[in-house]
Amino acid sequence: MCTLFTFKTNAQDPHFSQFYANPMYLNPAITGTNFCPRWIMNYRNQWPAIPGDYVTYSSSFDFGLNELHGGVGLIALHDNAGSGVMTTNNISLLYSYHTRISSTTTLLAGFQVSHIQRQLDTRQYFGDQIDQLYGFIYPTFDPFSNQEYHKTSYSDISAGILISNDRYFVGFAGHHLTEPNYSFLDSFNEGKLPRKLTIHGGTKIILYDLGLALFNNTFLSKFSTITPHFIFQKQSESEQVILGAHVASDNFMIGSSFRRGFNNSDAIIFLLGYELEKYKIGYSYDLTVSKLGMNSGGAHEISLQIQLGCFYKNPSKNNIPCPNF
Questions:
Q1: What is 194-221 written as a DSSP string?
Q2: Is pLDDT at 80 greater than 70 in this prediction?
Q3: Residue 160: closest CA among 301, 259, 19, 42
Q4: What share of the chain is helix, strand, coil (3-state, %, to 5)?
Q5: Number of structural domains found in the chain
Q6: pLDDT tens per residue across span 101-159
Q7: Range of 157's domain?
């Protein structure tokens, strides 16, 4: 006798620990804040020590235009889930409107239109017609085995806002506002992609203002600022909070944060960053503290930002103060 159990499951977006090294993915309002064109590449390998790891690649490009009173951008993302059992390709166009609400504070509002394609690799899961000696040699009788049921695509809309100045920033983003149907079987029409809601913020503190001059000639004296930050995200039944901080000098940064779901702790994140002229590179490692433990291999993440030549003669006048990790 065979008993089958079915459970309702909900999709969740890939996430990055270096969230401010992939700023438009976090919040479309951050599009074009540097005004000078920038190209950002991100790579994440989650749980590499266990079968069925998750590998995500992201590439984004954005720039600001005074004529548009904001910035425009493009994101391309590729995600391999379960070592390629399911792949997701996402391309997004973004626009952000920038306006000053005071001499030091800027309000940004961003919009994102995406097209997503999901596909199953039928070579990586079991068939249903098994020969006791030779294995899976017979064609399946499953009516849903046709390739047309293994690929789906849909469009999506997201939006966000950000208030920022030289000392603090706070933002809100809503992804998948239309909750599109992402089901492989359109006839069932039960696969709505849940909205993802994000609240994030932080503040930049000058270490000298804290009276830390007593740390002169110590390791802390090499850094000029500390930036505490937080992120809260909710998507369907999944909720997580990230609390952390980093210290930075002119070209070097170290930081740490803690990620926890409402029901259990997830990971401690360690981050290193280095800036050289027009290049920024970051590496982070997620130390898993959930029940998966160290046997999962944690998660490795690398980011690279390339600052390209500016369209404007005086780009510093156009810069918007924003979180910069």
A1: PPEEEEEEEE-EEGGGGTGGGGTTSGGG
A2: yes
A3: 19
A4: 15, 50, 40
A5: 1
A6: 988 899 999 999 999 998 887 666 555 556 566 555 556 655 555 555 578 889 999 99
A7: 19-317
Q: What is the pLDDT of residue 7?
A: 38
Is 14 within a domain? no
Q: Is the pTM of this model over 0.70?
A: yes
247: helix, coil or strand?
A: strand
Cβ proximity of 108 and 30 under 8 Å: yes
The residue type of 79 is D
Q: Is the pLDDT of residue 79 over 60?
A: yes
Rounded-to-integer distance, Cα 28 and Cα 316, Å: 22
Which contiguous run of DSSP H or E holds residue 80?
A: strand 70-81
**CATH number where 125 lies:** 2.40.160.40
CA dist., res. 79 & res. 296, Å (int): 19
Classify residue 76 as left (phi > 0), alpha (psi -120 to 50) or beta: beta
